[in-house]
Every structure is written in C-alpha cells, then in structure tokens.
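Collaboration report, partner site 2.

Our partner group contributed sequences for two proteins of shared interest, and the home lab folded both. The records are reproduced in the order in which they were received, starting with the first partner submission.
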Amino acid sequence: MSAEATSPGAHSRRRGLPRIDLRRIGRAALLGPASRDRLPDAIGHVADAHRAHYPDADLAVLHKAYVLAEVSHRGQYRKSGEPYITHPLAVTLILAELGAETTTLTASLLHDTVEDTEVTLDQVGAEFGAEVCYLVDGVTKLEKVDYGAAAEPETFRKMLVATGNDVRVMSIKLADRLHNMRTLGVMRPEKQARIAKVTRDVLIPLAERLGVQALKTELEDLVFAILHPEEYAHTRALIADNATAGDALAAISEDVRRVLREAGIAAEVLVRPRHFVSVHRSRLKRGELRGTDFGRLLVLVGEDADCYGVLGELHTCFTPVISEFKDFIAAPKFNLYQSLHTAVAGPDGAVAEVLIRTHQMHKVAEAGVVALGNPYASVDVAEPADGERADPTRPGWLSRLLEWQEAAPDPDTFWTTLRADLAQDREITVFRAEGGMLGLPAGATCVDAAYAQYGAAAHSCLGARVNGRLATLSTVLGDGDTVQLLLAQDAASGPSPEWLDHARTPAARIAITGWLAAHPETVGLPAATPRKPLTVSADRRGAANALVDLPGATVRMAGCCTPVPPDEVTGFPVRGGAVTVHRQACPAVDRMRALGRSPVAVSWGDAPGCRVTLYAESFGRPRLLAELTDAIATAGAAVVSASVEPPDEQRVRHTYTLELPDAAGLPGLIRAMRDVPGVYDVSRAHHRATA
C-alpha cells in the first residue's frame, strides 16, 4: 500500500507531538538494533506511544513483527527515497498514538508484507495467530492482474466484508491512507487527485462513521489542499493573518476556569483550534470571521453528571446561545460520539462554542472504534456455522452496507452505490409497530423501511401507517417515528418503477432495480393517468323499509348517508311529494334545519332488507376490484352500483351501493371487505364523496 513523499498537509499534525524523522528511522531500520535484548531503535517511538495507553503491554510480539517486516521489506524504497519500512512504522505509530491495542499494532507492522513481499498469509498465521492473519488479509489489495479495472472496488468490497467481522481492519486502512496522503507530494498531480477523490468519497465518510475524528479531520485537510488548492491557500492565509485569534478564546477560557473553580467542579479547559476545512466551512456559513470563530473551548470532566453541572454554570454565568445547544450524551451519535455542545457570549459579545465531555468520551470522540481496543477481549464471540465471526461492535450502518453489497451485481454498481451510501452522513431510528427498531439514513422513506425490515418480501408492500396514521410509501420518516408496513398477501405483486423515486437506501434501490429487471413486462406499462370513474350499475329499486309520518308520501333513502336499521333517522319533505330519510348524524340534517325545513318523523318497518353505501379505501393493485366484488357477493349482498375513483398517490377509493337481505349482516360485510389484501378501511357513507 505504497505512497509517496512530501505532503501539503504537514501543518495538520496535532500540536504538541514532535515530528518524527522518518529518514533517521529508516537508517535505524537498516542498521538494526544495537543488541538482541532490547527493542530496535526504529520502533522505539511506537513502543513509547503504546505504553502510554497500555503500561503493561508485552512488546515482544511487536519486536517480532517489526523484525519480520524489516527483513521482508529490506531493499524496497518508497518514491520519496525512504526505506519502505518507514511506511508500516508510521502507520503503526498513528494507531499507537490513538490507543490501538497490541494485536492491531502487530497487524499494522505486517500489513504490506503479504501484498509486497514473499511472506504468505500462512506464515503470518503460523507466527502471529489467526487474528493478526485476518487483519493483514483484510487490508491486502486484490491484484490488478486478476481483477483489472475492478481491482479497486473489489478490494474495498473485500475490506468492508472483513470489517464486518472485525472493525480493526478499517482502523488499519484509515491509518494507512493517512500516511499515504501525508506523503503524496511526489506523485503526478492527476494521480494525487484520483487518490484524494477516493479518500474524500469513501475513506473520510468511513472514518466519520467509525468515529475516528483524529484521522478524519487530518484527511479532510489533506484532500482539501489537493482538490481545492485556491480555497486551501486562502484559508491558510486567513489563519496566518489571525495568528492571535486564539487570545480571544484564551480570555474566555480563563473566565470559564474561574467560574468552574468557584462552583467546585474539577475540570480541564482547553482551547482547540479548528482545522482548515472547519474554518473554511465557518467562513462560508458566517462570512467574516471573528477571533473566537477560529477555535472552540473543550471542557473535560470526570463524570457524566459533571458535564451537566458545567453546562448549568456556563448558562448561569454567561449568556447562552440556545440555538447552539445539542445533547449528544443523552442521545449519542451513531458513530459513538458523546458530548454536550453549547455556545456562550462573553462580555464583549464574542460568541465561543463549547464542547463538554468526560475524559473517556473525549478518547472515544478522537479515536472512535480504535478506542474500543480488542472487541473480543471481554466478549465471548461464538463462531457461527459459516465460520464468520459476529462483531459485537458492528454498527447498524455497517450491517446494512454488508447486506446490500451482496446484491450489487457488478463492481461499478457497488462502487457507485457505496459512494452514494456513504454520502448520507446522518442516521435516524424508527420504531416498528410490532416491536423492535430500524436504523435508517436521514431522508429515508417508507419504501426504505419496508426493505430494511422485510428484504425481498417488501416487493408486495402496499403502504404504511406512520405514527398510527395512514401514509404513502413516499412518506419521509423522522427520527423516533413508529412505522407499520402493510404487505399484500399476493406474493406475485411487485414494486413499480416510481418506487425508485422514493428509495434512498442502496438495499431498497438494488432490490427494486433487480425485480424490475427480472419483470421487464411491468417496466413498459404507462403510469396511471387520471381517468373517468368506473361505474357499474345494477337494479336501482327504491328502498322503502322506512315508514314516514306523512300519508301518501314516497320514501327515499338519502344517498349521502344511506341509513339502514337500526340507525336513528329523520326525514325532510322534498319536491314531488317525496320524503328523504337521513341518519340523525348526517351533516345534511343540520343544513336542512338551518334552511327552516321541518323534519318528519320516520320509523323502521318489519322488512329485513336494506340498501347501504360503503366507501372502501385501498392501495392500488391488480385484481383488487374483482376480489372486493367477490367478498361482497360471498357476504350475500347485491351490488346496486359501484364506482372507482382515479388513483391518488397509489391510493384508490371505491364507492359501493349495496342491497342487503338483512341489515344485521352489515358488520360482517364490512369485516369481509376489510380483510381483502390492500384494503385499509371500509366505512359507511356520511357525506357526498369528494375526489
């Protein structure tokens, strides 16, 4: 995983850490140790950084891995002229500074041996064990001679699958890419740009999702310098021109220390300069920057409760900017990040952003999954039958990624879809009505929820209820929503091409595209267009099981509410000597009374038959009208008339006027119609239908 020489990003190395002289390390690597009983000089920096996090670490295995790596890479040089061993040493030092445990550092020292030397995976496994072997294999590239142009996407696919079983694989890859980006200067500009774009589109989002902010921010600055050199130069000059900007934050930090000291809260208050990309984004957002915009205050405390104590003191003694408050302790980000964010105004009106977290939270915020150490050290991880290990640290987004990548038919689709998936950098949680949760990217719709929950079975999804209310499949879900997905019983039904307009997750898009490709006859069908309501008419006999207190009058049942026994009813005389009978609750009754019409008493006769109008609300699908009509006939009702309105957002309203032999059978008829797949509601008419 070679890369090359000097870098425009040397500025972004964290302050307080000395620059390591790689050329001196290279010479030490070639000369070897002064004696056999001590660690080689070249790996001394790694040992010191590792012992800072793990004081009792056994360095013997690192010594052994270094010797193998040095011997294997001896005679190899980077394009910068440095001995090649400086690269695995630098990668390992990056991980050691972040707090990686010994197994990760061992694999990091050896990560290029199988790819670039004669060392085999079997040898690595025999010397260092299965875990180190797995990590080295996970970051080993696939050969271009075997995969051609597909080598890069297929290498990433292989690496992601390996990460699904052990997140330490991606930790090594991120550190490897960081050192390569630091030393990219001797390569041709076009190759620098190509590597920087892949870093921007794939590696930086992965670093963000794994919570490794220390690597992510430096990678962002390095990519910024290569892909946007003019904006980078302007930002660099802006920071240089405001070299004393930190004084404004330092003054506020002293006030914060005093306030917390007087409150009896033990806290460490630090000024953290913003990195270049952060300054650039702030300038685009706010225009002209003030001194306090070039950094933030970081307050570190011992316990979670102290975080809220600090927050209370700051909001009491300073003027808080309420819109800037965010609580990522109570609701952590999906990448393990926890912190309180706020902003306060000083006496001169300058606003300072403040991050409040515990020391442990800070460690995780900087190092992410690297700070977890060995995910198997305290967890009994069973070996599934297929031999894959289930990683207890696997986040939900990674599980979803691993699911859809299996269905990606070719490297180009995988590569394009991976970049699109990683571009969605915020996650929401929705709750299933039957229990359980679904993690989805922000902007996901009911279509995405259906495929996340049911996989291929979601092809027959008809609609959903969101927070108890009926919703179309295009409905965008919010964090905390409850969703109930409605599936058709007909397994032959499938998605329409319009679903692709609503799908945001790769799993949904790939599944829909695959189904449409397998059923080309459905793709060419024209989209539903407005059409005149379909009306089926039968015998229109007058209903007259109602007795009115008006001799000789003709009785008509109102079409707006179609009363049936034993409804409470009333009547109103109309032209032609007829009386129209309404249910008491019908809105038309109030209108008639408002017009001064006098009601007529109505009672029910002994005849059991009745006529009723029902509305059936459903999702559009083939054969729905036939199945509804069959359910009506099976219930013993006769269709007097039926109309189907044009579909609106996949929803269809059917209006049926039915003749029943007995009004007592109405509840059973309504239940039978509701049981038809795709029908979500059946109700009595109570006002005239509207399109």
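Second partner submission, folded after the first:
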Amino acid sequence: MDLVPALQEPLKQPLKSVLGPATAKVMAEHLGLHTVGDLLHHYPRRYEERGQLTQLAELPMDEHVTVVAQVADARLHTFASAKAPRGKGQRLEVTITDGSGRLQLVFFGNGVHKPHKELLPGTRAMFAGKVSVFNRRLQLAHPAYELLRGDSEETVESWAGALIPIYPATAKLESWKIGKAVQTVLPTAQEALDPLPPSLREGRGLVPLPEALLKIHRPHTKADIADARARLKWDEAFVLQVALARRRYADTQLPAVPRTPRPDGLLTAFDDRLPFTLTEGQQKVSEEIFDDLATEHPMHRLLQGEVGSGKTLVALRAMLAVVDAGGQAAMLAPTEVLAQQHHRSVTEMMGELAEGGMLGGTEHATKVVLLTGSMGAAARRQALLDLVTGEAGIVIGTHALIEDKVQFHDLGLVVVDEQHRFGVEQRDALRGKGKQPPHLLVMTATPIPRTVAMTVFGDLETSVLDQLPAGRSPIASHVVPAADKPHFLTRAWERVREEVANGHQAYVVCPRIGDEEDDPKKAGKKKSPEDEAEKRPPLAVLDVADQLGRGPLQGLRVEVLHGRMHPDDKDAVMRRFAAGETDVLVATTVIEVGVNVPNATVMVIMDADRFGVSQLHQLRGRVGRGSAPGLCLLVTEMPEASAARQRLNAVAATLDGFELSRIDLEQRREGDVLGQAQSGARSSLRVLAVIEDEEVIAEARQEATALVTADPELERLPGLRTALDALLDEEREQYLEKG
C-alpha cells in the first residue's frame, strides 16, 4: 500500500495542497503544523459561547487576543498629517463592548473603507489583534475580524453549534482561519488510528479517537468538550508513558557488572571517619542505591534532594562502594566552578583516603582526580593516565570527561549533577566509556513534583532526600520593595554590614554580567508586559559591585564572580571567598548550585522578579549552611499587585521546595517547566496538565508498564506504534533522555 495514510498527508505539497499554499506555509512556519494529523491535534484553547462574551475587562497587555463583542459606536475622523497634508487623512474609531468592558478599535488610511461599511452599531463579530495602550486606553489597531451573522448559510455552517472554538493563533493567522482549515480536514478524523488498546479504552469509558477529535473541534455541548479532553489527555499520558516504559524495559535487558562493597573496605573506612551520623533519609536512599548497584542490570536512579540535604555525601558513598568493588566512578558537573567545588569537598571529606598511591595515604585509599577543559597540559596528561591505569578510583569533571581521548580502566558508576543542564548525547557518551553500561545516578536539587518526575524523568527510578541534616540553620526570606519603599533597600545594605561586622559573609546576586554587547537579535525579542512596564535592563554584576563599593558597602572587601571570567580567576575568587578573605561576593547565578561556604549568612537578590521560583529557591540555599541562621532578601521594583510580586511573596513564605515547584508549575506553562525535556517533541503536551492530571499520569504509567512487560514490541497494537513514531521520530527518540 503506497498511499500516504490520510493523517500523514502534508498540508502543503507540490501538486495539490490540502489547504491554500499560503495558509499551509504559515501553519508550518509559525505553528509547527505540517500534516493533516498535526492540524487535527491543534486543539482549541477555549470556546466562546454565542451568548457569553469574552471579558474585555481582563485583556492581557501586549498579547494576541481573540474577542467576541458587539459594536457600540463607530466614528470616522479626518485629520491632517505628513502623508495627507490637506486634512484628507482618515481614521475610523470603533468602540466594542461585551458587558464587562469596552475596547477601542482603530483603522487608518485605506483600511477604513471596509470596516466603515461593515462594523455598524449592533453588529457582532470576532476580533483578533494585539492589545496595546493609547492615551491610557486599551485598543486594537487594525484588528482582523469576522462578522457573526446568523443568516448566511456558510457562516452558520462554519460556526455550527453554539460553541465557537478559539485556537492558539499567531499574528499571521487568526483563530477563525485556523478553525476553517480544521473544518476542511475534519472528515479525515474518521481514519485516525486509535493508540489505546480497546480493553483499556472500554474499561475506562473513553470515547474512540475519531469521535474525540470531532467533539473537540465541533462540540455541540460542554459535555462533548469534557468527553474529548478526557480521552485526549489519556492519549498523551499513555503514549508518553509507553515510550518511557519501553526505555526502562530496554535498560533492564542491558548487562551490567554488579558492584558490591567489600565488608572492610574504603566505604567502611570512610563511614568510620565521618564526624556525624547519616540522617534516616540518607541511610534509606543509600540502601536503595546499594541494592541497585548489586544487580546485573544498570541502575538508573534520580536522586532528588532539597538544597543542603546531603546529596553529595550519598553520591560519594555510592562512588566509594563501586571503587571498593574494583570499579571506577565519574561525577559529571555542569560548570568548572562546580566541578572544582565538588573536587574540593570530596577530597576534604575523604582526607587521607583520597591520597591513594601517595605518602600519607592509607591502605584503602584511592586517587581522586579533577578533569576540566582549562587544565594545563601536564596536569591533564597525568589525570588521563591515572584514569586509564585505574590508579584514580574517582574522577570529577565537566564535559571534558566525555571527550574521545578520555579512557577508563573500568567505569562502573556515572553520577550526573544537576541533570537539567546535561544533554542526551552527553549522558550516552559517558555511558559508552564503560566495558559494559555503567550504573547511573542522576542528582538534582530542583524539587520536582511527583507527576513531573514521572513525565520528565520517567525512565529513572526516583529517590527523595527531604530531611535537612542536623546543624543546618533556617533561612528567613523577605521581599524588599525598592520602588515603593526605598528605605527598605537602605536597611538591606545595613543588614549586610551588620552580618559582616559579626564575622560573616554575604552574596549579592544580579541577573546580568554587565559587559555584554547589545545584541540586536535579543533586542527584537518579545518582551513580557512586566518587562515593558519597566524599560530598564536588568541590573548587572559589574555595575552593582561598583556602586556598592563606592556607596552603601564602602570599606568592605567586595569581589565579583561571573561565567565569562577565566576559570582560574573564578577558582581564585571562590577560594578567597571560602577562606573568608572576601566579605561580599557580587555574582551571577554561577553560584546557584553546589557552592558551599558555611560562613555566608546573607544573600541579597537584585531584580529578584527576573528569576524563576525554583532558581530563587536554589540561590537561597547557598546561605544558612553553617550554624548561624541565613537571611535572603528579594529586591524588586515590581508593583504590589503584579504577578511577579505574588511569585516573590510565595518564595518568601515557604522553604518547602516541593511546594514551590508546584506553585512554579501552576504559574508557568508546563512547556516551560518540562523545558528541554519536551523540546523537539512534536507531540508535546497539549491537553495534559502535569499538576492537575496527576491521577491520569499515575494510572497511565501503571497501564503502560504492564502493557510493555507483556508485549515489549507492541506487536498487537499497530495504532500505538504509529502514535509512538509520531512522538519519537528517530532523532527525536533522544528527547526522552532529557536534555
């Protein structure tokens, strides 16, 4: 059969086009819709009812909106301008209303003739355009519109039923044009292959896929929409979970060398010299990891832990267990600063146990080497030699570990720190360094709600460390409204001076470095209304350090740290700060993960509204790491009523990272949070909401696991195989490895 299945038919092709070539081109370029199936899966964002109008009173600034409203008033004005000096310029002002508010539309020049004839008082229509402000009033300039007449056959047909679908649209293609295109291809929905096994669909009372597609695009009642969404949510959750379940299944088929620590080896010697006992959580998670390491299949485990919960210690014990069993362990960090930091803290924790082959090393000792891109040639050669001979049991490094030249004697465990910063290929490349696939432990300090973990990291088993070790101090957080109450900011700098006077240190974090060229590409980027509201660029490290040194923090030892400094300079700055030779470190988010200076007790985050909730939580975790309480001040110029301020208030109100990650998810679209995990996936989540649909995801995961165990190749389910192929084109299969 060489006919293209109906749903894979391209919207645009040389001989015939399903849609007009111009429409097909815009759909491909601006909405990523290439086939009939893509278009059928472009679901309405919401529905307008004929009798119920959009709330004009709640229009978002600067966004592309579609509204249904009635013309209240239309006036044509003439004026003189450079183009029309004799008073021949024409401007049509139309006021529309929906009962909740009024909105002005303006048309100029030749564009006034058609609307002047058609937009008469009393006329109802759909209007689409970008909301802007003129003379303190909201307006749409030159909106596209579609009249809603009840009489013409065609219109009644095209807006059939009482519910008008409003599609995610672009400036180039209005919602109703997308709606008309969908109507054109809707008959082919009958040929949609159903990915759900019939028993599952019937058991859960879900409607068949063709019916769901018809109901979501042409609902007659709200019940139709509910039926369709319930069914389509299951499709998304189930297909994704089957892909992840197949990945987990494939992993269980791989061989691995079991790694069991010797009874009186390196791990025992390390535990004996710890000056404290492990928390219950650390003991429990360590047991889960040791059980995995002892099996003949590679471990794939995600270790989530609040900032400061002791993940590094748990990871180090796993690495020591592998070294005990004759293997090597590699820890991959996202930045040089962090790799150096880990290397320092690991060698400090191990003491003489890290001095294998050296004078002073004990009998169980091994060698711990650092490998980064900026090392000198001699040090690098020695590190590579230590790895290939097996002299070094533990290596800590950046992407430099993945290069071809790096060879291991017997790589048994890979620990990846801050997973979200690593791409797929990198994880695989490192895994390929073992004679057999090594065990894998992924660590993140960004708390991930359970359902997101199931969706994004679904191919990993999850362990959670949620207790803080004894001796960690609480962190107080406060919002400092610099614009409304400038004296609060003055007080913030006084607090920094007080902490320094008491022998402590401080961080000041800024969103930008300050020596960037103005990038014209970035300048053209769409700004959020809040950015627009406050035209100044985000505060920069170099400027702020300069102002503080000459102003409120004069006389203190202030240094800067940012990502574009030479690695040696960065390391020197961090060493001075760690040694207490610097009072205040003005930095970008390079300090977000892993930097551990117990004497730092206060952090001031400038333009805190420019950071995400999880990022603020991460940053805040850098203070209060010793016995003295921590203080985090969130400085913002945003007005009290803004969403940004509410976000900051939420961060100040709780230290529970899981609670914050839920808030974060609810405030942003899933796509942002799943971030790159979903990038490149054509069928990323459309109707599934990761937080609200927790039950659907959990049930889909169970069903998917059972199905894949029974039929790993999905031989009995061609529809599911097709849906998987659509989700995972060959090169896209990788996206499940989470970049």
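Feedback sent to the partner group on the second submission included the following. The first strand starts at residue 46 and ends at 49. Residues 473 and 629 are 5 Å apart (CA to CA).
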